[in-house]
Recover the amino acids of this structure.
């Protein structure tokens, strides 16, 4: 039996066991999903330092508060408008900005103000006033619009929980024989969780086998952000492509040696985002990528060439139809009395309000639906997309 | 529905070795409690290098590399390209020992856990190693991350939590990982002597994680001012530099300590410049704080018993914690004796580490995978030792380990292991099944395993059975 037939026949058996889910959806011969609006959610874990990324060169306090950090990038900054600049590593994002495909937003915060990474990330992903580990904002939106979502991860991150999102991550292992899967399907028939996960794994494996293609990459490379981004783009293309994906990039907790570390991190981010666009080809015009982090970092550099946990940070919205080429968000200032608790950048807009706006304009969520996704905030009136 | 011996071996231990289930059957609780009197609680291969040895090795490596660089420059003269290639040739001899050390030390722990008759203690060691998670990032941390559990956690594993906490927070691995080794008071002597040239400052990373992760917990009622106070209290807690300082390991740099008394959680701690007392007093009080008792009791119950641990169980543990000054052995005995711990259904999904260790225990032969393969296995399953990448450690929630992609990886790994076994024709699946489950296996799983088309496939199905995946 051919692999494809085998999995399909297996998927058909599954439907007898339970309601059709990701497998049936992924494998059904649905009509091409051209013109489908896509959302890619990128979470930067570890608190990205916005003052070193989206740099307010016009604020004279900056060189006083962080002399060494600023000196490390000052001469090579990539200028935007109104005195804002991008870190030198973000050359691709700079191109996007010039083409009008990028919207940097300054001084945003999810409203979480306690400076714990883990709570901060859970809060950003959950989107609710009280963190709920079983449901994420993107998962709720996916359910409402009956979209198909994929997390590039080994297990579903909180953002996509409560939806039937699939997970995919490159495997370092040789694959088992297919009759093993069949025997396991049988063995798991009374175990709802395991059968669900196995179905999901098989469905995504099928997609990945046909779409990701290149299996010659070595293991180390496979897990790199740029490779994950390439695979993500591939999995989003074509007839069975998903509508929505989530990527994660860690390593932003720069308590020390920040100048070197962020140069590397931002380069990885920049190249990964470029790989997404390149891989999505003509779908780029229907895609919006949103990049955010759990919170920002102290405005003052610390004693070890880094920065500590802070409050407001920056986020990015990008895509082929984004009404970009300007920096959004109000600048709060860096004078001592303008800071949050006299140490952090003061938030001037809520991350969730931007995400709500993206959902409203990209996926046409109604106001009532948005209330269920983000009960605490309203969408904004700004037009994020062209046309 | 599991029997008590099955629960004892799986929920509390690392799964049954051959014949262990029969041995335990007489008195499962006593079998567990007896392990907690084992001295030492866990034993490593102590012929492997200690953190002090490692610092010397790293120092020698850096020195050799410098020398090699110089030689290369002399040999190559002014030709830059030639210099670079010469440098490559010469420095190859000065090999960075970090990765080998990481693999040796972390696979030793796994190897010991596979062979141990006291697998409860190994579970507990792994719990606290993850509670005090350090990651192998950068050349120094890569080499010394695995020494924290060997040197600071294992000796205090069954003692009072305050000693464990103090020992961990004064170990070089933790001090370097969370950047405390160069955190100094802004008003300290170092800054006054510095002639205004190079100011050093406070880094609050370790202090914050102590409050948030190691002791009180994120909702434990502390504020930013408490983080700052604790950070000041442990300024000067540093690590000796080989060749520059005397000795090795923890070094209290009195001249980097922030002077003056400090207030933490409303309590005042008087100044102590000469020694580390001020910070130590703070840590001891934090260890015995009711919020800490609750935070860690909850984590223990969540880890061993259920992701919705009953409040009554937590209360029993907290009470015992507060009555015994946080004695971990006593709190564990309370956990073992509590009826809430013995529900028949297995609610916890094994982490990759638990899965790999219990798989190899079930086979009763730890030579099937060499130590390098062990490390590769854990890496492929998403839980390479000391790679959590965050001080919160690896997740202890089943949902983070049982995604579709993770299940596929487990299947592939099980198939690879099984193919190694059947190759040598030594595997008797029925025996392994009876050793692993006794009678605690559903008819469906039993039949599917026995009807497999090959020994190899049967073994894969056994390892992937719902009964083996949960504990």
């Amino acid at each position: 039996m051919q692999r494809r037939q085998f999995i399909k026949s297996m998927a058909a058996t599954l439907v007898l066991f339970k309601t059709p889910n990701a497998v049936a959806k992924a494998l059904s011969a649905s009509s091409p999903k051209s013109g489908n609006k896509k959302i890619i959610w990128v979470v930067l874990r570890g608190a990205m330092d916005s003052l070193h990324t989206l740099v307010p060169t016009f604020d004279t306090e900056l060189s006083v508060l962080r002399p060494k950090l600023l000196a490390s990038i000052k001469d090579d900054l990539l200028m935007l408008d109104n005195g804002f600049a991008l870190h030198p590593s973000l050359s691709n994002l700079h191109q996007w900005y010039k083409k009008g495909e990028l919207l940097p937003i300054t001084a945003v915060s999810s409203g979480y103000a306690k400076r714990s990474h883990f709570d901060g990330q859970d809060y950003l992903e959950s989107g609710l006033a009280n963190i709920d580990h079983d449901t994420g904002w993107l998962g709720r939106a996916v359910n409402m619009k009956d979209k198909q979502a994929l997390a590039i991860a080994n297990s579903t991150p909180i953002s996509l929980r409560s939806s039937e999102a699939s997970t995919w991550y490159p495997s370092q292992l040789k694959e088992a024989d297919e009759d093993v899967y069949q025997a396991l399907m049988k063995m798991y028939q009374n175990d709802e969780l395991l059968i669900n996960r196995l179905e999901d794994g098989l469905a995504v494996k099928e997609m990945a086998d046909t779409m990701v293609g290149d299996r010659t990459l070595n293991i180390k490379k496979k897990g790199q952000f740029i490779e994950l981004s390439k695979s993500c783009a591939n999995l989003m293309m074509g007839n069975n492509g998903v509508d929505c994906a989530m990527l994660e990039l860690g390593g932003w907790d720069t308590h020390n040696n920040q100048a070197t570390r962020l140069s590397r991190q931002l380069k990885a981010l920049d190249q990964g985002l470029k790989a997404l666009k390149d891989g999505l080809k003509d779908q780029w015009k229907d895609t919006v990528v949103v990049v955010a982090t759990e919170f920002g970092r102290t405005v003052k550099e610390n004693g070890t060439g880094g920065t500590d946990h802070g409050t407001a940070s920056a986020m990015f919205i990008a895509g082929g139809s984004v009404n970009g080429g300007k920096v959004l968000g109000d600048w709060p200032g860096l004078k001592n009395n303008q800071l949050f608790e006299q140490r952090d950048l003061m938030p001037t807009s809520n991350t969730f309000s931007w995400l709500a706006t993206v959902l409203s304009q990209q996926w046409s969520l109604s106001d009532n639906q948005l209330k269920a996704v983000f009960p605490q905030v309203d969408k904004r009136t700004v037009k994020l997309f062209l046309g | 529905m599991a029997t008590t011996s099955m629960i004892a071996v799986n929920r509390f231990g690392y799964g049954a070795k051959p014949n262990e289930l029969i041995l335990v059957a007489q008195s499962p609780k006593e079998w567990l409690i007896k392990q907690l009197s084992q001295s030492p609680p866990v034993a490593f291969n102590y012929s492997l290098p200690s953190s002090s040895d490692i610092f010397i090795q790293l120092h020698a490596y850096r020195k050799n590399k410098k020398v090699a660089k110089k030689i290369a420059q002399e040999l190559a003269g002014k030709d830059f390209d030639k210099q670079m290639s010469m440098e490559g040739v010469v420095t190859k001899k000065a090999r960075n020992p970090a990765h080998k050390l990481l693999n040796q030390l972390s696979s030793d722990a796994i190897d010991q856990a596979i062979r141990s008759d006291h697998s409860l203690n190994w579970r507990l060691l792994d719990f606290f190693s993850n509670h005090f998670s350090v990651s192998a990032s950068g050349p120094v941390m890569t080499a010394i991350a695995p020494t924290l559990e060997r040197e600071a956690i294992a000796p205090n594993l069954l003692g009072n939590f305050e000693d464990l906490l103090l020992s961990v927070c004064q170990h070089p691995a933790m001090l370097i990982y969370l950047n405390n080794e160069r955190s100094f008071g802004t008003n300290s002597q170092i800054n006054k002597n510095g002639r205004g040239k190079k100011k050093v400052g406070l880094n609050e990373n370790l202090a914050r994680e102590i409050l948030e992760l190691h002791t009180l917990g994120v909702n434990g009622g502390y504020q930013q001012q408490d983080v700052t106070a604790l950070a000041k209290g442990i300024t000067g807690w540093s690590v000796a530099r080989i060749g520059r300082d005397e000795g090795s390991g923890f070094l209290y740099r009195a001249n980097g300590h922030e002077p003056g008394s400090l207030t933490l959680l409303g309590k005042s701690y008087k100044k102590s410049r000469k020694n580390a007392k001020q910070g130590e007093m703070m840590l001891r009080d934090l260890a015995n704080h009711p919020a800490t008792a609750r935070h860690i009791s909850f984590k223990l119950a969540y880890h061993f018993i259920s992701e919705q641990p009953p409040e009554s169980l937590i209360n029993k543990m907290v009470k015992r914690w507060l009555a015994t000054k946080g004695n971990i052995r006593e709190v564990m005995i309370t956990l073992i004796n509590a009826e809430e711990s013995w529900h028949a259904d297995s609610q916890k999904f094994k982490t990759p580490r638990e899965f790999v260790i219990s798989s190899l225990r079930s086979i009763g032969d730890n030579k099937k995978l060499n130590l390098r393969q062990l490390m590769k296995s854990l890496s492929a399953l998403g839980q390479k030792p000391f790679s959590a990448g965050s001080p919160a450690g690896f997740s202890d929630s089943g949902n983070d380990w049982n995604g579709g992609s993770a299940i596929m990886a487990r299947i592939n790994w099980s198939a690879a292991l099984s193919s190694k076994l059947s190759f040598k024709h030594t595997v008797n699946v029925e025996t392994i099944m009876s050793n692993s489950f006794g009678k605690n296996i559903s008819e469906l799983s039993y039949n599917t395993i026995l009807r497999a088309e090959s020994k190899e496939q049967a073994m894969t199905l056994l390892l992937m059975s719902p009964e083996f995946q949960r504990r």
User: Anything to note?
Assistant: The domain at 38-187+221-373 of chain A is CATH 3.40.720 (Alkaline Phosphatase, subunit A). The radius of gyration of chain A is 22 Å.
